[in-house]
Amino acid sequence: MRVVAQCLLEHNSQLLLQEFWHEHDHYYFFRPPGGGIEPGEYAADAMLREIQEELAAEVSKPVLVDVLENIFEYDGQTRHEIVFLFRATVLDERLTSVPEIRFIDNSFEFRAVWIPVAQLLQGDDLVLYPVGLRERLPQLYPEALSV
Known about the structure:
By secondary structure, the chain is α+β, with helices and mostly antiparallel strands. The chain has a single domain, classed as Nucleoside Triphosphate Pyrophosphohydrolase. The protein is 21% helix and 46% strand. Strands 1, 2, 3, 4, 5, 6, 7 and 8 form an 8-stranded mixed beta sheet that branches.
């Protein structure tokens, strides 16, 4: 089992989501930035560390909004994650003034894109992980339902 911290990074009714390619099933998916929690590390500290490592971004004080359980198949194995989901606002204009951000994580290049919350609520054309996140968004962003 893996315990991770992820953050819904917000700006102007959009979320910054990392894009990944599922190598085995051949599709793109999106997830909030974040990563593994180290032994002895609090979830909020891990989330801030991961945001610094991946994006070098300044964010508002994160607020824990949910804990999700994610069980999935990857590379022929069953994986199990506990996800501490936080919410914060991006304060760094360097990130909020561009539609996408390229970053390096463990020597691999990735990108993160700004996606309107309303778009995420309108359909499931974008694959969003962890499982259960899309269903939680209307409670977190009720204002996006009227867009």
